[in-house]
Amino acid sequence: MLKLDWIKSGRNRFPRGNWFVEFFTKGEFHAHQIKKTLAESKTAFQTATLVETVSFGKVLIIDRETQSTEYDEFIYHEALVLPALLAHKRPETALILGGGEGATAREILNSKTVKKLVMADIDHNVLKFAKKHLYSWHRNSFENEKFSLLVQDAGKYVENTALKFDLVYSDLPSPVEGGPAYRLYTLEFYRRLKGVMAEGAIFTTQAGPGTPVEFELHPALRNTLSKVFRHVFSYSFFVPGYDMPWAFLLASDRDLSGELKKEKTDVRIAKRLKNKPRLMNGEAVEKLSNLPLYLTKMIKRDKRIITKDKPVFFSTSR
After folding, report:
1. pTM of full prediction above 0.90
2. Within the chain, how many helices (H) and strands (E) appear?
């Protein structure tokens, strides 16, 4: 091999300091230089660590994966929440599956029309951790009078509740083998979930990386949701803290194409939201489903359906 002085061997150390290294594939990683470790909570389900980094401020790490960063968490959370919130004609009730940081709740509670928000998260200790250490994420959402926090398995809540919701958001951890969430990424669960959705309701889920080298989860999730809902579409936003685009899926029995037009969305942003979004306006929402052609082709080639007997396990940390 031609020797170049800017190619470093594995024997060379990182620049001076402490680094959090996250491998995406066997040949790719992202690293954050850490100023100090701020807090840690080890629970029966996961390990949460909060560190202060040089570039992204506070970073929440769950089981060695970057969950979100203080610098850009608004990109992920607005991307998850706003399209459905703005596409629905008048949402009054919302449900979050997971969402322990409280930032998804923060974005929903920014709506003037939502009167009741329920969040079901299984991990009591991570919720305590978030309340204490992640104020810049939740902004006291846990104390909002419209907000009901249920410390329980989100799947069991869906099975047992008699309530109906206009909006449902899945902000669950990755479906890792042996983890608490993989059962909530299956055809059987989505069929049950539809039973708690009101007429015209919209479901949104985080759906893994939107990069072609890690596009394993997304097409299978889309195929699975298409067995339950009449209309499903993909969209993604680049999240700097993840060092990759992150993908989402929006699903409903209503055709939402007319609800996502620029003019209508801009009016709803002005009338419905207490604080203006930092990520998107009407033009951005209208273009949400314009995926790159190579990802569209990858989706069309994938025929998998995720079921209880044939789960798909996925993690960005390899």
Report:
1. yes
2. 10, 12
Considering the candidates 153, 171, 266, 309, report the single residue annotated as catalytic. 171
Residue 318 has pLDDT above 60, yes or no: no
Does the annotation count 72 as an active-site position? no
Q: Does the structural domain 73-301 have CATH classification 3.55.40.20?
A: no
Rg (CA), the chain: 20
* 305 alpha-carbon distance from chain centroid: 21
Burial 187-204 (b: 16+ CB within 10 A, else e): bebbeebbebbbeebbbb
Domain 18-69 fold is: Spermidine Synthase; Chain: A, domain 2 (2.30.140)
> Which part of the chain is CATH 2.30.140.10?
18-69
3-state secondary structure 191-236: HHHHCCEEEEEEEEEEEEECCHHHCCHHHHHHHHHHCCCCEEEEEE
Taking each helix axis from N to C end, the angle separating 187-194 and 217-226, rounded to the nearest 10 degrees, works out to 50
Closest by alpha carbon to 282, among 83, 137, 119? 83
**Residue-wise pLDDT tens digits, 123-164:** 999 999 999 999 999 999 999 999 999 999 999 999 999 999
Residues of the chain with CATH 3.40.50.150: 73-301
Give the span between the Cα atoms of 131 and 136, in whole angstroms. 10
